[in-house]
Amino acid sequence: MTHRFPVRVYYEDTDLAGIVYYANYLKFIERARSEWVRDLGVDQVRLKAERGVVFAVRRVEADYLSPARFDDLLEVETRLAQVTPARLTLDQRVLRGDAVLFSARVTLVALGETGRPVRLPAELCQIAAPR
């Protein structure tokens, strides 16, 4: 399943050259991941309140391929690459039309109330697992 999330580039997203500042791609894909989890039916606020579990980025491998500019309408694609009891690995791409501007592989883990790693909630693994 591919999740799609639209993003408009605002002036505040750009640098002096008028292109998207590199760190803002990480914000774009973070928003898309949050919406992907929401669309899976996972309430992250409730998960934290009831079980003390939050998600954290463990690793990001990113490739900046082509610049986005002010007022571009972009789309972030999120695809599950791997799910284990300990981590989710996602492939994300930022596109303008058919052109891939940015791609990343993101590894997520779950943290408990003490900030130590815990197993992912079983229901998330079942929901997220490719069918």
Unreliable segments (pLDDT under 50, ≥5 consecutive)?
A: none
Distance between the termini: 9 Å
Number of helical elements: 3
- What value does the Rg take, in angstroms? 16 Å
Number of strands: 6
Task: Indicate the overall shape.
Answer: elongated
Percent helix, as a range, is: 10-25%
How confident overall, as mean pLDDT? 93
User: Which secondary-structure class do the elements indicate?
Assistant: alpha+beta
Oligomer: single chain
Strand content: 35-45%
Biggest sheet layout: 6 strands, antiparallel
Output the helix-strand order. EHHEEEEEH
Q: Which descriptors would you attach to this protein?
A:
131 residues; elongated; alpha+beta; 3 helices; six-stranded antiparallel sheet
Give an overview in words.
- With 131 residues, the chain is α+β, with helices and mostly antiparallel strands.
- The chain contains three helices and six strands.
- Strands 1, 2, 3, 4, 5 and 6 form a six-stranded antiparallel beta sheet that branches.
- The protein is elongated.
- The model has no long low-confidence stretch (mean pLDDT 93).
